[in-house]
């Protein structure tokens, strides 16, 4: 998942369309990668 730096909404971007990354909500072109909480995380405690 990615996050629009303008409106802050989460944007789902597929690699196929990665060439034109635009926020579908506001049209902003700067989107940052957000860390998903669904990722596997293995930590030694
Ligand atoms: Zn936006």
**SSE order:** EEE
* Class computed from helices, strands and strand pairing: mainly beta
Uncertain residue ranges: none
Q: Give the fraction of residues assigned to helices.
A: under 10%
What Rg is obtained from the alpha carbons, in whole angstroms? 13 Å
Largest beta-sheet characterization: 3 strands, antiparallel
What's the β-strand tally? 3
Q: How many domains?
A: 1
Number of helical regions: 0
Strand order of the largest sheet: 2-1-3
Write the layout of secondary structure elements.
Layout: E1 2-4, E2 10-11, E3 31-33
Antiparallel strand pairs: 1-2, 1-3
The structure holds zinc ion.
Zinc ion binds next to loops.
What does this protein look like?
- The chain is mostly beta strands and 45 residues long.
- The chain has one domain (1-35).
- 0% of the residues lie in helices and 18% in strands.
- The chain contains no helices and three strands.
- Strands 2-1-3 form a three-stranded antiparallel sheet, with no helix packed on it.
- A hairpin with a 5-residue loop joins strand 1 and strand 2 (10-11).
- The N and C termini lie far apart (28 Å).
- The model has no long low-confidence stretch (mean pLDDT 80).
- Zinc ion binds next to loops.
């Amino acid at each position: 998942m990615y996050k629009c730096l303008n409106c802050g909404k989460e944007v789902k971007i597929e690699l196929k369309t990665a060439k034109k990354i635009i926020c579908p909500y506001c049209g902003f072109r700067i989107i940052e990668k957000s860390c998903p909480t669904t990722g596997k995380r293995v930590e030694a405690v």
